[in-house]
């Protein structure tokens, strides 16, 4: 199924580099053409000769080789691929990618490429959990970099935890999935979708506001995946620090009332997904000037008003109601019970329940665990394993495609 596909494989340093030889063999068996860049670190674990023998192509190592530059050049090397695969992807090369560095052939090719990039990280568990690595991964994924792994288990260093390179079969499956989604049918062509994302900011005065910890990562990922599936997507986003998803019409709002107005302005739609963490309340009378501290220590009295319920409003909007309305239930306890009650109360079709308790890492994090409630009984429920928010988006869009195909 990979006949005619050109893959640029970048092999960085790591004991798991030996597994990449099996990846090369399997990709070649499926008809892929592979050119390989071997970093200095990668060459400590696998030899150029073994990589060349399996790829049946020259192995590139030195950016300053005038012969190679004359024959190929790092620009052509990165541009003539259909996919750039970095496996194993060490903490070092991920950091360089995030920072935009280009101090060797591998990082120069990565910075110069205009093609999709899939990384397969591997490293010590503490390196993987280090805030610097987590920030680098978040940066790369926000730019559209794809990721497979790492997996958990026993590590080469003798420790146990997340950091193992994905198995060759898993890497091959990720490559196949990428090309299937690129080349395959787009199941949501002709469908119009509206997605909400991020928090809302409810002003107290011109300086202060009420908000929550939502990053918008899940909603933005859903919008991007819907667009990849062919849908005409409008993303109504609260204040976030994320790039706009490719191929998506983005409308930026601040408050819950602004968000509702924007959603209603983009009706009718076939699909509406409410991933935003909308503030339930706002200040009844926003101060026109900054509220100053009283000299006598008296505290200001803030009166609250209830914000409009966007999910319930759209779920009960009569002729303009989308064919599929999906809500999120961000809960900290009794997640499934509260979500099931919310679905009945709001009148939406599906609820995606997730745990956002402080120790879950969901708000602002990279991963999510979803319990899909799509009916009135437990037989209709689906528990999706904990996975990246991008993977959650893919799972959801695949589920939506099946829904409309039945």
Question: Tags for this entry?
Answer:
406 residues, alpha/beta, 34% helix, Rossmann fold
Description:
- The chain is an alpha/beta fold and 406 residues long.
- It is built from 14 helices and 20 strands.
- An eight-stranded mixed sheet has the order 13-12-9-14-17-18-19-20, sandwiched between helices. A six-stranded parallel sheet has the order 3-2-1-4-5-6, with helices on both faces. A two-stranded antiparallel ribbon has the order 7-8.
- Helix 13 links the parallel strand 17 and strand 18.
- The model has no long low-confidence stretch (mean pLDDT 88).
- One of its GO terms (biological process) is coenzyme A biosynthetic process.
Topology:
Layout: E1 6-11, H1 17-29, E2 33-38, H2 48-55, E3 59-60, H3 66-71, H4 74-79, E4 83-89, H5 91-99, H6 105-112, E5 117-121, H7 125-129, H8 131-142, E6 146-147, E7 151-154, E8 160-164, H9 168-183, E9 192-197, E10 202-203, E11 209-210, H10 217-228, E12 232-237, E13 249-252, H11 256-265, E14 271-274, E15 281-283, E16 304-306, H12 310-315, E17 324-331, H13 335-346, E18 350-355, E19 367-373, E20 382-388, H14 389-405
Parallel strand pairs: 1-2, 1-4, 2-3, 4-5, 5-6, 9-12, 9-14, 12-13, 14-17, 17-18
Antiparallel strand pairs: 7-8, 10-11, 15-16, 18-19, 19-20
Binding site for CTP: 280, 290, 308-311, 328, 342, 346
GO molecular function: FMN binding; metal ion binding; phosphopantothenate--cysteine ligase activity; phosphopantothenoylcysteine decarboxylase activity
Domain DNA/pantothenate metabolism flavoprotein C-terminal: 188-402
